[in-house]
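User: My collaborator and I are trying to settle a disagreement about how two of our proteins should look. Neither of us wants to argue from intuition anymore, so we agreed to look at predicted structures for both before our next call. Could you fold the first one, then the second, and keep them clearly separated?

Assistant: That sounds like a sensible way to settle it. I'll keep them separate. The first protein:
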Amino acid sequence: MPKKNDEIVRIDVPQEAFCIFCEEIRAEVNEKNTYIGVYSRQIYVDSFPYTLEKLSIALNVRWDMTAFPKSVSARLAYEDKQDVMIPPMDPSEKIKVTEDQEETVQLKAHIQCPPLEISKEGDIEVLVRMDNHFLSAGALSIKKRPTKKLRKSKTPTKKSL
């Protein structure tokens, strides 16, 4: 623990990326958004291949002001594919300094994905590239719905009567 008069030196630069997966994002007044059809961690489907018709992603990326990246981009990775979701952005154009901490910068993006053809179980992951490294912003698992097994009805036998 540093003493009161010691200079605090930052060893690593805090960076964070997270997202919300939903069907639709509506922009409201006063910089508010409504997320419609928010997905939990996984989606269960009846069979594969499956077309995910609607997928919107609310992406948030935060970093320390002392390590301002030159470029930020994001990719949607699934089934060994990496489809570019948003083009590289100049972070200095779309930043918002958070109110709770003036040294933290936040970039927000809303992405409407085209329909995705899913051929097997797996994860849809959002990867954020900041300069030369990647951060995982989150993942949505696509799984086959478990089949319900029918239980055999127990009929009384002579022994049980």
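The second protein, kept apart from the first:
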Amino acid sequence: MESRVPFGSETELVLRKLSQLIYVTDDIEKVLVTSTALVESYVDDEIDHYLALREATSTTLERYLLRDYGGGFRTSWKERIRFLERGIELGAVPSPLRQDVLLVVDARNAVVHGNGELTMQQVNKGINTLDMRRQLTGRLDAHFAGKRVYFSRETSRSALGTLIDFCYWLDGSLPDPL
């Protein structure tokens, strides 16, 4: 399948919003939450659009499978990425980009679900907590005081850069479904 022409109108809109976020607020946690939500919505919309177009030209079995599995990608970011790689057959998301996107999501989850601390789920999901702290510190310029995680202005820049790179990758990788 050939790739679409990069930078569709939906992508441009999301990229503009992401690029403006750093100038709209100094609240780093707000930037993390808002930017991740924007990209999550963009990815979900792109997958939904692809599935709808694909369903129009699919067999009965394919339509059944699309409907049956189609919404499963919404359960987590790992599932979204897995669906992009396997369900739409985009191939592997480049490893550093995948890791960085999931790290931004982990930072957002610490804000949203952990009140500024790593959540019990993050600590208990088999990831070495020290390794996660090192990654947050090294890649997103986060700092820890006990359990509390603090983010810097550089966190906003790094997180936004990662999410923008992911949008560019997705937009350039989505195949023509017809």
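Some points you might bring to the call about the second protein. Strands lie at 143-145, 148-150. Residues 87 and 142 are 34 Å apart (CA to CA).
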